[in-house]
């Protein structure tokens, strides 16, 4: 726990928050008028003896949204999530969950919120059932209601067949499902999941993704951190990027793929020798040949404007290249993230450590 008991104290000596705001690019989904955000973070700072883990971040998440929290190791994700989950105090700033202040009313917040840490603790000598029963008792469930809650959670996470298995005999994927089950016992409105997919094999990741989508369909708000950007893009309504304790982007995966885009990669297939496309690409304006492929070629167009892309295709047809497919590559989220970071560095705004 921290050295402060308030989330509204004066921020420490850090860059002023308006300067920090100018570092971010954002198309954050708006919160509809009159709707209380599921999570609202305003000017949040957290320092640990001179380490500025979180530096003046603000964001709001509408109820029912699945939002990905993305950043490198040490970017400040866990620190932010722990403060939202009432497990740590901010150095300054204010956090509300479903309109309830996390410092003033932590117990009320806990009743609305399920927290899944990146490690499910040291309960290895318990069975799955004992573990869930322990937490259900701690949450105040008694008798039939407790049995029902545990049964529901075990059915949802597909752990009912493993009720008597010791936790230290679970695979990583089963363990993550158990941890999710624990977070769901009290049927919370908001779920905070810290790196739930870390270390999972592809099958377990697909299963977890499926469970998260079901929870979203039930109307729960899910705030989920991960390093695996492509997966978050598929699963989340929006993505929140954090870098060195500052938010650098909040928007949909699509807006991120569009943002700062200056060129387009296209895979061309044609009913001819790929060399013919290669020859054409080396002569055509706005086009660079990247490589020839089995079916044709991969080319780069020096614009992301639809008119320019359409003109390239038209020219190719006019020049008698027998095009059978002209497929624009989707920009990878990782590339977009790196572009945003490069823009920030190029803008000359120092990121203070
Ligand atoms: P990861 O992806 O590696 O889990 P993260 O984005 O979750 O990283 P945090 O765990 O929030 O990052 O850490 C942010 C910074 O704060 C790091 O520099 C970390 O070393 C520091 N930090 C976090 N907790 C503490 C603590 N209790 N005491 C001192 N420093 C801390």
Model description:
The chain folds into 2 domains: 18-258, 3-Layer(aba) Sandwich (Rossmann fold), CATH 3.40.50; 262-330, 2-Layer Sandwich (Alpha-Beta Plaits). It has helices at residues 17-21, 77-84, 106-112, 128-138, 143-156, 172-184, 202-217, 229-235, 253-258, 274-283, 306-318, 333-346; strands at residues 25-26, 39-48, 51-61, 66-70, 92-97, 100-101, 113-116, 190-193, 221-226, 238-243, 246-251, 264-270, 287-292, 296-301, 323-328. The chain is elongated, with a radius of gyration of 24 Å. Helix 4 (128-138) packs across helix 5. The strands form 3 sheets. A 7-stranded mixed beta sheet has the order 1-11-10-4-9-8-7, with helices on both faces. It has a 4-stranded antiparallel beta sheet with strand order 3-2-5-6. Strands 13-14-12-15 form a 4-stranded antiparallel beta sheet, covered by helices on one side. It is built from 12 helices and 15 strands. Strand 2 and strand 3 (51-61) form a beta hairpin. Helices cover 35% and strands 25% of the residues. Mean pLDDT is 85; it is low at 1-8 and 15-23. The chain is α/β, with parallel strands linked by helices. It binds adenosine-5'-triphosphate (ATP).
